[in-house]
Amino acid sequence: MSLRIEANGLTKRYGAIHAVDDLTFTVEPGRVTGFLGPNGAGKTTTMRMMLGLDAPSSGTVTVGGKPFRDHTAPMGTVGALLDARAAHPGRTAYHHLLCLAESNHLPARRVDEVLELVGLAGASRRRAGGMSLGMSQRLGVAAALLGDPPVLIFDEPVNGLDPEGIRWIRTLMRGYAAEGRTVLVSSHLMSEMALTADHLIVIGRGRLIADRPLDDFLRDAAAPGVLVRTAEPERLAALLGAASVETAPDGALIVHGTDAAAVGAVAARHGVALAELSPRRVSLEDAFMNLTAGSLEFTA
Ligand SMILES: Nc1ncnc2c1ncn2[C@@H]1O[C@H](COP(=O)(O)OP(=O)(O)OP(=O)(O)O)[C@@H](O)[C@H]1O
User: Out of the domains of life, which is the source (predicted)?
Assistant: First the structure.
């Protein structure tokens, strides 16, 4: 079973604040979709509406063609990790999951299975309140997986995880997507999404900014260009002819529309000594900053 998530004109207002503003997008099965935006962009609010925890002011969001709350087996439909500290602090990991399983008519053996899956089998008697944030995240993931759902929704799951934990959750999400499940994961870090997602939905101030494959972002971010330093910048610029050249504040030349080898060849042919010649890339984080500039809730 594969289910898509569809938002249509989805809007949530809190007084004068448009937390989510007319979002229309589809989250497809079989891939990891990154939900990216700066703090306060509206990611959590959107996810809460997907799960029926908040009601839209207008518009709709459906899972498999109907509102989430109309599904008769919620945990068997969507596995969600919104708040890692959601477990009752006095309950052991095992009992937290057992309560969830029983109230959702899921077999008790699933509890042992998911504890094993998330690497908490040895900590099943630990109380949720005494867990590190990393362990709480794993317990949250275990709860999300209990019903073996075709859709996973994770809000900032790498928060509090150490590098090994981050790699673990990344592998888990990619594995579930490869099985044909729908995986939506939010983050405010482009660098994290670049390692995890196949597709990105980017929002800022509640509005849709971009909805495209990760590869498209990578290609644009790679913005081919060459950085050159020489004692004779004007002469080299003139020799480069048609290629567009800008001068950086520190005097370096940024040459577009060509590559380092071609610039080096021109310089060598005309005896221009180069102090530096390097391909120039815009970091993914810079590309994301450029994309969301103007939509930041807080600017320095
Ligand atoms: N219950 C609420 N009452 C009033 N305003 C709210 C409420 N929930 C969210 N907001 C506002 O809605 C906007 C979006 O918040 P939201 O938490 O969805 O963003 P986010 O992208 O998840 O950000 P973060 O990464 O910081 O969690 C923010 O301006 C926030 O202050």
Answer: Bacteria
DSSP state for residue 28 in the 8-state scheme: -
86/4: higher pLDDT: 4
**DSSP classification of residue 191:** H
How far is ligand 1, taken at its centre, from the CA of residue 116, in Å? 34
- For residue range 104-144, list pLDDT tens digits in order: 999 999 999 999 999 998 888 888 888 888 889 999 999 99
Q: What is the mean pLDDT of residues 263-268?
A: 94
Give all strands of the β-sheet with 199-204 in edge-to-edge order: 78-81, 151-155, 182-187, 31-36, 199-204, 207-213
What pLDDT does residue 38 have?
A: 87
Token pair 């800008």 is found at: 246
ipTM above 0.90, yes or no: yes
**Closest approach atom of ligand 1 to CA 45:** 18
Q: Does the pLDDT of residue 72 top 90, yes or no?
A: yes
Residue 300 has pLDDT above 50, yes or no: no
Residues with CB under 6 A from ligand 1: 14, 17, 19, 37, 39-45, 188, 297
Task: Give 58: exposed, middle or buried? Use CB within 10 Å, 0-12, 13-18, 19+.
Answer: exposed
Return the ligand 1 atom nearest residue 46 CA.
18
Ligand 1 pocket test: pick from 45, 159, 192 the residue with the most ligand atoms within 8 Å of its Cβ.
45
∠ at Cα 95 (51, 130), nearest 5°?
90
Look up tokens 């870090």; give the residue. 189
